[in-house]
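Possible regression after last week's pipeline update?

I re-ran a chain I had predicted before the update to compare outputs. Posting the input and the new output here so someone can diff against the archived version. Not blocking, just want to make sure nothing changed silently.
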Amino acid sequence: MHIVLASTSRYRNELLQRLTLPFVTAKPDVDESPLPGEHPAATAERLAVDKAMAVAADHPDSLIIGSDQVAYLGSEVFGKPGSIPRAEEQLRRMSGQTVVFHTAVALFNSRTERFSCRAVPTHVRFRALTDAEIQRYVAREMPLDCAGSAKSEGLGIALLEALSGDDPTALIGLPLIALADMLRLEGVDLP
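New output (post-update):
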Protein backbone atom coordinates (compact mmCIF):
# COMPACT_ATOMS: atom_id res chain seq x y z
CA MET A 1 0.00 0.00 0.00
CA HIS A 2 1.07 3.55 -0.65
CA ILE A 3 1.61 5.97 2.21
CA VAL A 4 0.27 9.49 1.82
CA LEU A 5 0.96 12.40 4.13
CA ALA A 6 -2.04 14.72 3.92
CA SER A 7 0.01 17.80 4.66
CA THR A 8 2.26 20.32 2.99
CA SER A 9 4.05 21.09 6.27
CA ARG A 10 7.81 20.81 5.87
CA TYR A 11 8.04 19.91 9.57
CA ARG A 12 5.71 16.93 9.21
CA ASN A 13 7.45 15.89 6.01
CA GLU A 14 10.86 15.92 7.73
CA LEU A 15 9.49 13.98 10.70
CA LEU A 16 7.87 11.28 8.55
CA GLN A 17 11.15 10.81 6.69
CA ARG A 18 12.62 9.51 9.96
CA LEU A 19 10.59 6.31 9.53
CA THR A 20 12.40 5.66 6.22
CA LEU A 21 9.19 4.67 4.45
CA PRO A 22 8.45 5.89 0.93
CA PHE A 23 5.55 8.35 0.91
CA VAL A 24 3.98 11.13 -1.10
CA THR A 25 2.36 14.30 0.11
CA ALA A 26 -1.04 15.71 -0.75
CA LYS A 27 -2.55 19.05 0.14
CA PRO A 28 -5.80 18.64 2.06
CA ASP A 29 -8.43 21.28 1.39
CA VAL A 30 -9.82 21.66 4.90
CA ASP A 31 -11.27 24.63 6.75
CA GLU A 32 -9.21 24.71 9.94
CA SER A 33 -11.59 26.94 11.89
CA PRO A 34 -12.74 25.57 15.23
CA LEU A 35 -16.41 24.75 15.55
CA PRO A 36 -18.47 26.88 17.95
CA GLY A 37 -17.83 25.73 21.52
CA GLU A 38 -15.28 23.13 20.42
CA HIS A 39 -12.45 22.45 22.88
CA PRO A 40 -8.99 23.03 21.33
CA ALA A 41 -8.05 19.36 21.84
CA ALA A 42 -11.19 18.26 19.99
CA THR A 43 -10.36 20.69 17.17
CA ALA A 44 -6.94 19.08 16.66
CA GLU A 45 -8.41 15.57 16.61
CA ARG A 46 -11.24 16.49 14.22
CA LEU A 47 -8.88 18.26 11.84
CA ALA A 48 -6.41 15.36 11.79
CA VAL A 49 -9.22 13.07 10.64
CA ASP A 50 -10.64 15.66 8.22
CA LYS A 51 -7.23 16.17 6.58
CA ALA A 52 -6.76 12.45 5.99
CA MET A 53 -10.28 12.07 4.63
CA ALA A 54 -9.93 15.14 2.37
CA VAL A 55 -7.38 13.41 0.14
CA ALA A 56 -8.74 9.86 0.38
CA ALA A 57 -10.71 9.92 -2.87
CA ASP A 58 -7.52 10.64 -4.83
CA HIS A 59 -5.52 7.89 -3.11
CA PRO A 60 -7.17 4.47 -3.26
CA ASP A 61 -5.27 1.56 -1.76
CA SER A 62 -3.33 3.88 0.54
CA LEU A 63 -2.58 4.58 4.15
CA ILE A 64 -3.30 8.28 4.59
CA ILE A 65 -1.86 10.27 7.46
CA GLY A 66 -3.48 13.45 8.74
CA SER A 67 -2.21 15.51 11.62
CA ASP A 68 -3.05 18.74 13.37
CA GLN A 69 -1.80 20.66 16.38
CA VAL A 70 -3.52 23.24 18.53
CA ALA A 71 -1.64 25.19 21.21
CA TYR A 72 -3.77 26.58 24.00
CA LEU A 73 -3.73 28.14 27.45
CA GLY A 74 -7.13 27.81 29.08
CA SER A 75 -9.56 28.91 26.38
CA GLU A 76 -6.97 30.99 24.50
CA VAL A 77 -5.67 29.36 21.31
CA PHE A 78 -2.28 30.17 19.78
CA GLY A 79 -2.20 29.52 16.05
CA LYS A 80 0.49 30.19 13.48
CA PRO A 81 1.33 33.86 14.02
CA GLY A 82 2.09 34.77 10.39
CA SER A 83 3.75 38.06 11.38
CA ILE A 84 6.53 39.27 13.66
CA PRO A 85 4.26 41.43 15.86
CA ARG A 86 1.83 38.53 16.35
CA ALA A 87 4.67 36.11 17.18
CA GLU A 88 6.06 38.52 19.75
CA GLU A 89 2.60 39.02 21.29
CA GLN A 90 2.02 35.26 21.52
CA LEU A 91 5.33 34.78 23.30
CA ARG A 92 4.56 37.64 25.72
CA ARG A 93 1.24 35.96 26.52
CA MET A 94 2.87 32.54 27.05
CA SER A 95 5.76 33.93 29.13
CA GLY A 96 5.82 32.23 32.54
CA GLN A 97 2.85 30.01 31.60
CA THR A 98 2.29 26.34 30.84
CA VAL A 99 0.79 25.90 27.39
CA VAL A 100 -0.68 22.65 26.05
CA PHE A 101 0.35 21.69 22.52
CA HIS A 102 -2.28 19.10 21.59
CA THR A 103 -1.18 17.11 18.54
CA ALA A 104 -3.44 14.57 16.90
CA VAL A 105 -2.56 12.04 14.22
CA ALA A 106 -5.09 10.11 12.13
CA LEU A 107 -4.48 7.16 9.85
CA PHE A 108 -7.03 6.20 7.20
CA ASN A 109 -6.77 2.94 5.27
CA SER A 110 -8.54 3.76 2.00
CA ARG A 111 -8.62 0.07 1.03
CA THR A 112 -10.54 -1.08 4.13
CA GLU A 113 -12.03 2.34 5.04
CA ARG A 114 -10.74 1.86 8.59
CA PHE A 115 -9.36 4.85 10.45
CA SER A 116 -7.80 5.52 13.80
CA CYS A 117 -6.85 8.70 15.59
CA ARG A 118 -4.56 9.31 18.56
CA ALA A 119 -3.88 12.46 20.50
CA VAL A 120 -0.60 13.34 22.17
CA PRO A 121 -0.59 16.42 24.42
CA THR A 122 2.66 18.10 25.41
CA HIS A 123 2.73 20.51 28.33
CA VAL A 124 5.27 23.27 27.74
CA ARG A 125 6.31 25.62 30.55
CA PHE A 126 7.78 28.86 29.20
CA ARG A 127 10.33 30.82 31.19
CA ALA A 128 9.47 34.37 32.22
CA LEU A 129 10.66 36.11 29.05
CA THR A 130 11.81 39.69 28.66
CA ASP A 131 10.77 41.75 25.65
CA ALA A 132 14.42 41.79 24.52
CA GLU A 133 14.60 37.96 24.63
CA ILE A 134 11.36 37.66 22.69
CA GLN A 135 12.48 40.14 20.03
CA ARG A 136 15.90 38.48 19.63
CA TYR A 137 14.35 35.04 19.37
CA VAL A 138 11.74 36.03 16.77
CA ALA A 139 14.34 37.91 14.71
CA ARG A 140 16.73 34.94 14.71
CA GLU A 141 14.35 32.04 14.15
CA MET A 142 11.33 33.69 12.46
CA PRO A 143 8.83 31.16 13.87
CA LEU A 144 5.94 32.58 11.88
CA ASP A 145 4.69 29.24 10.54
CA CYS A 146 4.37 27.25 13.76
CA ALA A 147 1.67 27.23 16.42
CA GLY A 148 2.72 29.13 19.49
CA SER A 149 5.62 30.94 17.80
CA ALA A 150 8.35 28.72 19.26
CA LYS A 151 10.36 25.92 17.67
CA SER A 152 11.53 23.54 20.37
CA GLU A 153 13.69 21.72 17.82
CA GLY A 154 15.68 24.92 17.32
CA LEU A 155 16.56 28.01 19.32
CA GLY A 156 13.08 28.01 20.85
CA ILE A 157 14.23 25.41 23.35
CA ALA A 158 16.00 28.28 25.16
CA LEU A 159 12.60 29.86 25.88
CA LEU A 160 11.43 26.89 27.91
CA GLU A 161 11.73 25.81 31.54
CA ALA A 162 10.33 22.34 31.05
CA LEU A 163 8.15 20.19 28.86
CA SER A 164 6.38 16.92 29.44
CA GLY A 165 4.71 14.51 27.10
CA ASP A 166 4.87 10.99 25.76
CA ASP A 167 6.48 11.79 22.40
CA PRO A 168 9.00 14.55 21.67
CA THR A 169 8.06 14.57 17.99
CA ALA A 170 4.47 15.49 18.87
CA LEU A 171 5.60 18.97 19.85
CA ILE A 172 7.14 19.43 16.39
CA GLY A 173 3.87 18.41 14.72
CA LEU A 174 3.69 14.66 14.05
CA PRO A 175 3.75 12.14 16.92
CA LEU A 176 5.92 9.40 15.43
CA ILE A 177 5.64 6.97 18.36
CA ALA A 178 1.85 6.86 18.00
CA LEU A 179 2.03 6.87 14.20
CA ALA A 180 4.54 4.00 14.10
CA ASP A 181 2.22 1.92 16.27
CA MET A 182 -0.76 2.77 14.06
CA LEU A 183 1.19 1.83 10.92
CA ARG A 184 2.26 -1.50 12.46
CA LEU A 185 -1.40 -2.26 13.21
CA GLU A 186 -2.05 -1.77 9.46
CA GLY A 187 0.66 -4.29 8.57
CA VAL A 188 3.59 -1.94 7.91
CA ASP A 189 6.92 -3.37 9.05
CA LEU A 190 8.70 -0.92 11.36
CA PRO A 191 11.62 -0.76 11.80
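Follow-up from reviewer: compared with the archived run. Residues 124 and 163 are 4 Å apart (CA to CA). Marking as no regression found.
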